[in-house]
């Protein structure tokens, strides 16, 4: 059996018309001889009646204490979506079976709202496929061994799709969404962002971990373990999208030669820069006190810079009040800049290439934008800018690296 997993995101299943386009893709795959397993997200985005956030809003925020029941509630969105999808598919004369997470054999641990898939027992799915049916699995959910329903957290449907791809030894996992593929930057920010024809698992993982929300990094890591290719494609068109594999399978010679210095640019908004300065001679205990206190209060720190005058680091805006409370409790008066954005310039070709930082600084400074802090790894350079400068800085960088010509 040649199995294809096709995952349709929120906007792809939101309306009858978009579901119709999704169904086209399923029928195409069947015509090509594939047995198709479909994974669906809940319908629409925040504000839409059956979207996960809308279901959650039935319960007042202060009453959202029972995590087990919240997972029961949140798992309804995908179920509604799957049943609507199956009904519409039958209208085209295609037999379909809807399975929720536990029915599909997706076994998770019991960590509600962020459960991890432990194993998948695909027997039932395979039985249905044998009967020439399309199996429609609710994304974002599974079941713990004690019959509890669990949800998988952010990007959970992507994870359901690739985990099923691995369990079923699928030929490909298709991630259908509302953009034409993985782009050199978020198309909502950069008009002339271009589609990447092929990327490696590592490249897209880096982009996704740095904020590009087109696919969840956990989903990519799962596919990578068994080398299952992923295609990120648009529901609205028949274009090929972006192929994600372990190596570039491109006919473009420059991709083979690896001279793709920068793959793409992505960002994380709503972060706060915190700087703590030390009294003369006190910088060693201060450094230790600050990071120990952040750790003890479960505040995750990023872009860390430690020097003899003090320390600088970032936290999410959400964690800022708590971080300030803790630091003041220790007797420090930190300097803060909230509402900042961390821009990541990602590319496997960045390592060791002279002049990359010069290009970055040049692009940003030419726009009169101040770089508040920076950091680098072998695949990524980060710059921290004020939130109000974010869009301008990203566009300037996109131009500087000529990513519109990809
Ligand atoms: P879905 O509901 O289909 O899972 P998501 O909203 O999770 O869709 O992901 C698709 C969105 O990701 C796009 O609409 C786009 O705005 C955003 N995005 C951010 N960075 C990128 C990028 N580099 N390439 C493509 N899309 C991106
Ligand atoms: Mg998504």
From TrEMBL:
Residues in domain CASTOR ACT? 336-399
Reactions catalysed: L-aspartate + ATP = 4-phospho-L-aspartate + ADP
**In which domain of life is the source organism classified?**
Bacteria
Question: Which GO terms of the molecular function aspect are on file?
Answer: aspartate kinase activity; ATP binding
Which UniProt keywords are listed? Amino-acid biosynthesis, ATP-binding, Diaminopimelate biosynthesis, Kinase, Lysine biosynthesis, Nucleotide-binding, Transferase
- Could you provide one GO biological process annotation from this protein's UniProt record? diaminopimelate biosynthetic process
Q: Where does ATP bind?
A: 7-10, 177-178, 188, 213-214
Among the Pfam families in the record, one is AA_kinase
Q: What does this protein do?
A: Catalyzes the phosphorylation of the beta-carboxyl group of aspartic acid with ATP to yield 4-phospho-L-aspartate, which is involved in the branched biosynthetic pathway leading to the biosynthesis of amino acids threonine, isoleucine and methionine.
Q: What is this protein called?
A: Aspartokinase
User: What species is this protein from?
Assistant: Tumebacillus flagellatus
